[in-house]
Description:
Layout: E1 2-5, H1 9-12, E2 14-17, E3 24-27, E4 33-38, H2 40-43, E5 48-55, E6 63-70, E7 74-81, E8 87-96, E9 101-110, H3 113-119
Parallel strand pairs: 1-4, 2-4, 3-9
Antiparallel strand pairs: 4-7, 5-8, 6-7, 8-9
Amino acid sequence: xxxxxxxxxxxLGNVITYHEPDRIWLKDPNEVEKYxxxxxxxxxxDAIDTSNWYSDExxxxxxxxxxxxxxxxxxxxTLSSGYHGGKYVLSNRITTVGGLTKEKKLIIRVMxxxxxxxxx
Length: 120
């Protein structure tokens, strides 16, 4: 499954737009999921040159960045693992062709899907 921010999520999975307020995304520790931030509205005609993903200092170890990529308008990260109950904060920092830098946080709460099912 993947999440895209700002693009039709039915096409891309877990999509987030830059202007969307921070929210907590749930992930099972056994799943590999893709999350995409759509920077189109913020870019206003500029384009992403580089994209980097990194963990907040308070983020516990355990979640794995399997891969990351970007287009001229989106930044994508693929995540696996994580410990049940863990809260992970990852940031995406982009630099544009025009020399601007911007950052958006992605908050992941890892929770076993069977546990979630039993608690609902």
